[in-house]
Design brief:
Blueprint: H1 3-9, E1 20-22, E2 29-30, E3 35-36, E4 45-47, H2 48-73
The structure holds zinc ion (ZN).
């Protein structure tokens, strides 16, 4: 996912037109069995914007880690 897409999409204020996706892969899922259609694991169904917010958190964490490493390298 590109950061710019996330920034421009403004998903939180929208509230409509979202899909339910698996919390593991952000893929479509079998909603009756709560099974991810990507990795075939059992998963929790979440709104796609919620999944994107989680991915965004991971992205920011990774970037913070990178910045820490760069500072250590001097
Ligand atoms: Zn999955």
């Amino acid at each position: 996912m590109l950061y710019d897409n996330w920034k421009l999409s403004n998903p939180i204020d929208d509230g409509e037109g979202y899909d339910m996706v698996s919390n593991c892969c952000g893929a479509l899922l079998d909603e009756t069995e709560e099974r991810c259609l990507d990795c075939k694991e059992g998963c929790v169904a979440i709104e796609d914007y919620e999944y994107e917010a989680i991915q965004m958190e991971h992205y920011l964490e990774d970037r913070a880690d990178d910045e820490r490493l760069e500072r250590l390298r001097g």
